[in-house]
Amino acid sequence: VRVMVVGATGTVGTAVCELLEPGHEVVRASRRGDARVDLDDRDSIAALADGLRGVDAIVCCAASAPLTPLLDGDFIPSLQAKLLGQVELARTAIAHLPDGGSVTLTSGRIPEATPGSAGGALVNAGLEAFVRAGAVELHRGLRLNAVCPGWVRESLVALGMDPSTGTPAREIAAHYVEAVESTLNGQVLG
Ligand SMILES: NC(=O)c1ccc[n+]([C@@H]2O[C@H](COP(=O)([O-])OP(=O)(O)OC[C@H]3O[C@@H](n4cnc5c(N)ncnc54)[C@H](OP(=O)(O)O)[C@@H]3O)[C@@H](O)[C@H]2O)c1
Hints:
Strand content: 15-25%
Shape: globular
Bound molecules: NADP nicotinamide-adenine-dinucleotide phosphate
Strand order of the largest sheet: 3-2-1-4-5-6-7
Order of helices and strands: EHEEHEHEHEHHE
Number of helices: 6
Largest sheet: 7 strands, parallel
Helix content: 40-55%
């Protein structure tokens, strides 16, 4: 299977590419990747349609929704790239992938009662609702799923935080591989 990984240079994306590579052909995409796409830019997502020729599956683990104070912060950037960007990417891919193709998006799990998490929680809940509801409309054997990572161990290390509560990126990456290789549809994994 030829799989495009959007966010291929990131912590999660790197592990996903490594795990996919033995069995699949991987096309790396991001704002600065071999294939370019900016989830913040609708035109750039629409332009990706051409780059999807020959691609069977798309995995997106790009963009993020950083902690943002409820009143002082701006939720729009996270909503724009991580929520609406992934939704638009999925809709574009579904229109262009061949029969049996799959789309796997990324939501996220934030520990309860984390100050600044309202915007991220909104983004993640929106993505998971979109996947569950959107999957029922798919035809031609197409599939739509999401992976919901909690803290990634490597990210905690990079941030100088206690890594013991994190999950190794490779373990999280296995959920993306399962989404690509299985027949799952409308599921949130992880
Ligand atoms: N790491 C964690 O602990 C954790 C926990 C829960 C959820 N998640 C979620 O998992 C996903 C991946 O996280 P990560 O830690 O791997 O992120 P990361 O290391 O910051 O990597 C982000 C990747 O996305 C690309 N990217 C960023 N903005 C983009 C945009 N607007 N359009 C296209 N590509 C873009 C980056 O490459 P370019 O700069 O070249 O574009 C990079 O390849 C995110 O959705 C994040 O919210 C992560």
